[in-house]
Amino acid sequence: MELKRYTPPFDHEPILDLWGSIFGKAEAELERPQIDGTEAAYNEDITFVAQEDGVILGTVHVTIPRTGPKLCGVGGVCTTPAARGKGVGRWLFGAVMEELDRDGVRAMVLGTSNPVAAKLYHSFGFAYRPGSNVMMRYAMGDTVDFERELFASPENVQVVEGDPSMRIPLVPLVLHRGKFVLLDCNTALVNSTHLNQLSCMGLYPKYMDLMARGGHCFGAVGDNGVLGGMASVESTDRGMRADLFFCDGFAGAAPELLDACRKAAGGEVYLQIADCDAAKKRLAEELGFRPAEPVTLAIRGLQIPCTIYRMK
Questions:
Q1: d(CA 229, CA 174)
Q2: Are 129 and 136 spatial neighbours (Cβ–Cβ below 8 Å)?
Q3: Of the residues 43, 110, 134, 187, which has the fewest C-beta atoms closer than 10 A?
Q4: Helix, strand, or coil here: 20?
Q5: Is the peptide bond between 8 and the residue preceding it cis, with omega within 30 degrees of 0?
Q6: φ, ψ dihedrals at 238, nearest 5°
Q7: Single pTM value for the model
């Protein structure tokens, strides 16, 4: 058995076919942009393959942001049916973890609802984040320092249009259990304190979908490459709806995030805020918005009473 390491461009269709047979075609297609070279300018994507006599036995795929190479996302972890029960998955996953540790990666995220897979990941130091199906592994002794670095107040923050460099940094931002309840109504993101977060590598595709239907998204990025805030805007039957969320250290970027939404909308925007979200109501009023009308938002069967806020 040997370990092969592939980076785009390479013949990725056999890998996508394998993932499609194991995870389902729709989920496999989510990873196509990561392994076909589309995102090469933003992320380093590596597909590790265990094989024997040219036959694929298992895979692990990692995505490392070029702007923040201390954090990476892990996906595509599988073995073929014929290779199961032979220690292939543990050997392959262990080899990948060793390489990431040598390269100085400080935190890794992956998502799973499979208890068998979770047991394997746990044996390598992964643990579930509260209120989610996301597991995270830190470099030895780095847990507190990494969290502090992610959510500290940077000296400089830049608001930029959404792009694939946000694919991995978005995960800890969404899982950060901050003060907002409804994070982003345009992408149906809710604080994991209130609704279990099922996605990990599927979070950025929510913004890809928004952009595909004509919307826009923006990120607040610190000078250390940390993504500390997100905003989005899209057209609805009530006008251009904007929403935003951020960690405390990036609160100062809120006006600029909303301005970016206004520019993309070509005019004024409105906000839709959960009635239980006192912190976002205060923010809206500080920015000049006032309550206008009630509305209900449904997310995964949960009915969330909201209020529309418009500029006075």
A1: 9
A2: yes
A3: 187
A4: helix
A5: no
A6: -105, -5
A7: 0.94
